[in-house]
Amino acid sequence: MNINYKALATGSREPASEQLASGIIQSSTRNSQSIRKSWYSVFGSVLGVFLGLAPVISSAEPPEGRGPGVNKPLGWAKGRILVMPRAGLPEKELAKILGEHGGKGRKIGQSDLYIVDLPGNASEKAVAARLAHHPAFKFAEIDQEVEPALVPNDPYYGSAWHLPKIGAPSAWDSSLGSGVIIAILDSGVDPNHPDLSPQLVPGWNFYENNSNTSDVYGHGTKVAGSAAAMANNAQGVAGVAALAKIMPVRVSASNGYATWSAISQGLIYAADRGVRVANASFLGLTDSSSTRSAAQYMKDKGGLVIVSGGNTGVLQNYAVTTSMVAVAATDSNDFRASWSSYGNYISLAAPGAGIWTTTMGGSYGAVSGTSFSSPVTAGVVALMMAAKPALPNTQIESLLFSTAVDLGTTGRDPYYGYGRVDAARAVQAAASAVVAGDTQAPVVSITSPAGGSSVTSLVGVNVTATDNVGVTRVELRVNSTTIAVDTTAPFAFTWDSAGVANGMASLVAYAFDAAGNSKASTAVSVNVANGTTTVIRDTTAPQVKIINPVGGNVSGNNVPISVNASDDSGASGINYTLYIDGVLKATGKGSTLGYNWNIRSVAAGAHTVQVVAKDAAGNSASSSITVTVVK
């Protein structure tokens, strides 16, 4: 269909005979062509008003409060961290390891990710650092806060310029997003907004752990409207995917800030309910092992996760990942917005400057930020999925990238990724695509332990697996018996060798892709040598002493703390935990421990320094001193 945008800009409409009298799409009474003409009529009248008010945006201003180069320090959630154990780690062993730090694990949905609740006196950073180096875990990290990537009160009047820029009206000839649900992970969505209320499906509030997903900050309502505001209702704005449904998933506090754990829970929640598109408009999400794992979980279930590229205006060395699509922002001239972050993690670009969208209380407003280039892209993905529902997410993603308008240097670059999203070309490519039959099996190998090595007790098994489309799971089999399944790369297992008899055991890894193709690794034979003789128990505790300070008065900015220890079984097996006033400050291993205590912000007066040393047999001893901080 040819659309006369000059006529639209003056408010002209198509003939009344091609409009729906009710203003609501009624597919039972009109064919798809007349439906779209009616839809365009409403869009045209709205667009005409906005274009009449708005100047052409040639360069976007920096987002309010987050000018170029600004990286505001963020906090983290107190009393919890995030971990992912190796596949196959027994639950009792996991509980034991976490219990050594006073922690208790909560599994997130059907994934392998855990939230670990810690006691009030624990240092989240210290415990996360300790567990990150534990051989039973893939990773451990603090539950970092993340901020939304928006600008309220944009200096420009808003308009719907971004819709014709990405070719949305042409895309609507083939798809309006019907049948697709977009999960909006944000501050909630205004349930009474006339352009959003009909679009909503039930979601969840992970901040308060209830079903109330009303917007508490306003950001989520703006993001939701950018992706899928209702059209053909003779008012307001048009989202990119106007017939897609919106699942509000609240992950943030009333100040708009979210955490890695809430976002990870939201992604897994949406994936477990069959949602195929999720948008999370927060900064730096690709840097979190937890959110990358949760996004990969959704991708393995057939979905795609779209995230904001960030608004710092400078180079960001965030982790590069294939589990999420990170989106930069462009203006109406296809230039990168001056405040849009850049780096090798950027996958795509999309309009994000002066975007007119829904706001709280049934209103509308102009906003800027990668918070809005992200849902614009999510809306395009929904159009593609609706155009060819059987098309796998990996093909959708590939076509999304290959049809983008290449900007900047030829090919993928740190500023625009593969280019600015083009809805018309992307939807056309999806609609005409042949669902590729994948017959290529993954490639898989066991990288450790080495063949012929002797193993005892819990054994770490590392596997490398790749596929032309993607590996969905890896099974580890010992003597032909499956002992664990891992669905998230890097593929890593913990095998309890006590479950087989001493002697040679055969380890084989099987990798599977979404099409059901599978491949077995070359078998690795190891010698299981668990002891069968009587073991003399070590009951002697280590000797530990705080060498410096020796007690008494301390002053200045920093106080070096030095600890020495020895054990009858050797100092290499000694593990330290250092506490100051009962709060865990440091951990270590070996014959010595050093820690630099910053006392600049410590209150004057008496303070207790205690170190606990534990040997490999679990015997422990402690040493403590009292020092007086003099200001």
UniProtKB/TrEMBL annotation:
Q: Which InterPro entries match?
A: Ig-like_fold, Ig_E-set, Pep_S8_PrcA, Pep_S8A_subtilisin_pbac-2, Peptidase_S8/S53_dom, Peptidase_S8/S53_dom_sf, Peptidase_S8_Asp-AS, Peptidase_S8_His-AS
Q: Which UniProt keywords apply?
A: Hydrolase, Membrane, Protease, Serine protease, Transmembrane, Transmembrane helix
The membrane spanning regions, by residue number, are 39-57
Q: Does the keyword Ligase belong to this entry?
A: no
Annotated PANTHER family: CEREVISIN-RELATED (PTHR43806:SF11), PEPTIDASE S8 (PTHR43806)
Superkingdom is Bacteria
Which family, according to UniProt? Belongs to the peptidase S8 family.
GO annotations under biological process? proteolysis
Q: Which GO terms describe its molecular function?
A: serine-type endopeptidase activity
According to the entry, every stretch annotated as the Peptidase S8/S53 domain falls at 177-419
Listed Gene3D superfamilies: Immunoglobulins (2.60.40.10), Peptidase S8/S53 domain (3.40.50.200)
Active-site annotation? D186 (charge relay system), H219 (charge relay system), S371 (charge relay system)
What does the organism's lineage look like at the top? Bacteria, Pseudomonadati, Pseudomonadota, Betaproteobacteria, Nitrosomonadales
Instruction: Return the protein name.
Output: Serine protease, subtilisin family
Which species is listed as the source?
Answer: Nitrosospira multiformis
Q: Which Pfam families match?
A: Big_7 (PF17957), Peptidase_S8 (PF00082)
